[in-house]
Design brief:
This is SARP family transcriptional regulator. This protein has 180 residues and is mostly helical. Helices cover 64% and strands 4% of the residues. Helix 3 crosses helix 5, helix 4 packs parallel to helix 6 and helix 5 runs parallel beside helix 7.
Length: 180
Amino acid sequence: MRLRSALTRLDPAARSVVELVPAGLRLDAACAVDYRDARAYAQGLLEPEHPSPHASAAEIRTSIALLCLELLPDSYDDWVLDEAEDWRLLRASALEALAATLSTENRPHLAMGAARAAIRNEPLRETAHAALIRLHLVAGNQNEAVRVYERFALALHDALSVSPSAALRALVGVPGAARS
């Protein structure tokens, strides 16, 4: 009953974007929703032959910011949690794909920004750290690559009492297990 009451109090412009469908309510398909746009953009980045993001640096930074947004962060309904988890995984993969694409386009600073955003979103995701390490190595910044590795190894050890994979250790030339 509260929802019905709230809907009747909406001004006509706001009411026009809400559709009554057999399953309940939904936003009109023509209504612009940043989540829809971000999801479509993220999915496009993961297509095998996705179009190159030949966009300005400002547009890419805006896209990175869009991919960093959580879905309804203070909602705990089951449907929100499931959708938020799907979005979390999609955006992590999309940020990594964007970093790889920007790297191949020789746009290292933007690529590093995408990789760092992936790390901020998922601090224990090894593939995001590997992407940033590779970017530093390509740029000739071995010290930065080792620094990223060491911070990740410490965080991983502190959080899960595990070490980075052998593949990541090999990437930076660290033999054996990570330091505790």
